[in-house]
Amino acid sequence: MRTRHGSSTVILLAPACLLFALFVIYPLLRGVALSFYDWNGVDAKVWVGLGNYRELWADPVFQTALANNLRWLACYAVAPALGLALAVLLHQRLRGMRVVRSLFFMPFVLSQVIVGVVFGWFFHSRFGLLNEILGAVGGPHVAPLDSERWALYTMIVAGLWPQTAYCMILYLTGLATVPDELTDAARVDGAKDPSLLRYVVIPQLRPVHFVVSMVCAVAALRSFDYVMIMTLGGPHNSSTVLGYYMYEQTFLSLRYGYGAAIATVLLGLMSCIVFMLLWHLFYRERS
Amino acid sequence: MFPFPLERRPPSARAAYRLTVGATLVVWLLPLAAIVLTSFRSQDDLNRGNYWGWPSAAGILDNYATVLLDSRLPQFVLNSFLVTIPAVIGTIVFASMAGFALAKHEFRGSRVLLMTFIGGNLVPFQALMIPVRDLVIALGLYDSRWSLILFHIAFQTGFCTLFMRNFIRDIPDDALDAARVEGAGELTIFWRIVLPLLRPAIAGASVLVFTFVWNDYFWTLVLVQSDDIRPLTAGLQSLRGMWQTSWPLVAAGSLLAAIPPVAVFFVLQRQLIAGLTFGARAAR
After folding, report:
1. Average pLDDT taken over every residue of chain B
2. For residues A155 and A119, what is the distance between their CA atoms, to the nearest angstrom?
3. DSSP letter string over B221-278?
4. CA A227, CA B137: separation in Å to the nearest integer?
5. Were both Cys, which of A67, A127, A249, B151 would link to A259 (CB 3.0–4.6 Å)?
6. Cross-strand partners of A47
């Protein structure tokens, strides 16, 4: 039960609210406002209305970045599937399984900088392991990081490694909540594990599917680190994403207003996900 | 239980299972093995084209000596700690205070406030980048540890407040009311009763925030620039620029950089997993 306490409530909330307002809410609003200006970061800002957005609409690099974000989003659908498979594999009570599960989860606590570096080596055009393997079996020499077609996917593969680990952990917790009565009853009726998975377990895990897809969508839209580490958006901007293009336009081309407009588009995409999440969270809580 | 519990299957099935899991684990951790092996490789190995085979035994720890003694990596590690630890403490304190108010106090707009915290936490960093950088410059904090500490506290508080609020909600009101009857103020109650009961939640939230802040790369690019302040993620990247093709040095540096979060993870993994899966339970 919650009761009224007046001034002490204010004191308890003040530090969190002040900092959050100062470093998140205010910058968020100011960023959107900035997207209507032309600004090089130093001189006076010039109001251009929707000018930045009109330019974005026709900007081929922006279109590539947006498309790449959507491709990233689509490819990240692999993470829940693989994560669920790993969770099903590892959900056993045998001795030592706890340690094994932790080892599977470890990629998630590594910095994306490190993950990006290792996968960069794996795909390296001259010394990469991929080429050594392909060479050993008589395959062709490949240079995915230098390819306009494949550079993006090398980063997605890198990102999928920790992302799958995360999904696996969420699904493991989910599997632990599937009631034994349900699985036992189905087994008495002669159901084998594959059909049990299909008709009982996967439907039971619905709330987990929701969270997992939210988490993956947010991660896909946030992609920045891998681009910075592995490709710098190249070759020829083919592997850029909104997060990186924004950074590049702001700090390298000194187009702050244009950068803010890119960020606002990204914010719009993310808001769709946030609203779904909040609606789900609070609607469920109320009912 | 799903899948079918292997305790109830014959030993041969369990042996086959262990073999499968072992093989999968080896494949899964190959990237990690690659860093470890590379960190032991000598320049000689590279010159002979031995990029992926077994490293030759000579001078196996040379790379670590170089990284620790002849590079700025130790400074970067220290910088990371000097940002991460205050950020974790600040986040936990402010988030549990706000979480207490949101869980146990009745006031207008509490739901909106909570939604703002959660929603704000999912905002893409790029949407905040320019104004936060300007703000930090205006406050005279650009290129200082405080810029990172304050930003991380503010941002992480959003998520942690929800986390703490849900935990505090489960504390029985009787304990709080008893103290209130004896005339204790709300802040005393928070400090004396709520905070001690929060220990498991604090452990979970701390390890999460530690991992996020330690691994943050974006803000280390945007808010700081000098080597004396720069945390590991940005530092590693600048070392990588310096060492270019010297993969073994980069590998040794990366491994050293990964030790703190991995260590924290293994010590507090139960709490970390409880924290990470918290969203899954909140949405249930």
Report:
1. 86
2. 8
3. HHS--STTT--HHHHHHHHHHHHTT-HHHHHHHHHHHHHHHHHHHHHSHHHHHHHHTH
4. 27
5. A249
6. A37
Q: What residue segments make up the domains of chain B, in order of their start? A: 6-61, 71-282
Q: Which fold has domain B71-282?
A: MetI-like fold (1.10.3720)
What CA–CA distance (Å, rounded) separates A284 from A281?
A: 6
Pick the residue with more confidence: B245 or B80?
Answer: B80
Report the C-alpha gap between A84 and A87 in whole angstroms: 5
Contacts of B23 (CB under 8 A, 6+ apart): none
> Rounded to two decimals, what is the model's pTM?
0.90
Q: Phi/psi class of residue A66: alpha, beta or left (left: φ > 0; alpha: ψ in -120 to 50)?
A: alpha
Interface of A with B in 209-268 (CB under 8 A): 210-212, 214-215, 218, 221-222, 224-225, 228-229, 242-243, 246-247, 250, 256, 259-260, 262-264, 266-267
Please state, as a whole number, how many other Cβ atoms lie within 10 Å of the Cβ of residue A259.
28
Tell me the per-residue pLDDT of A177-210, one tens digit each, with 9 for 90 and over.
888 888 888 888 888 888 888 888 999 898 889 8
Enter the ipTM: 0.90
Contact B233 A113 (CB under 8 A): yes
Query: Which helix (H) or strand (E) segment is A47 a member of?
Result: strand A46-47
Task: Measure the CA–CA gap between A125 and A122, rounded to whole angstroms.
Answer: 9
Tell me the C-alpha to C-alpha distance, in Å, between residue A114 and each of A76, B12, B14, B29, B268: 20, 39, 35, 14, 22
Q: For B140-144, B160-164, B264-268, which range has the lowest pLDDT when averaged over its residues? A: B264-268
d(CA B197, CA A13): 19
Are A193 and B3 in contact (CB < 8 Å)?
Answer: yes
Kindly state the DSSP code that residue B8 receives in the 8-state scheme. Answer: G
Selection from A225, A107, A113 nearest residue B33 by Cα:
A107
DSSP letter at A178 equals S
Placement of tokens 């009311």 in the chain? B177
Tell me A213's DSSP state: H
For chain A, list the domains and their CATH numbers.
59-286 (1.10.3720.10)
**In this structure, what token pair is assigned to residue B134?**
């300007």
Would an 8 Å CB–CB cutoff place B270 in contact with chain A?
no
Task: List, in order, residues 6 or more apart from B57 with CB less than 8 Å away.
Answer: none
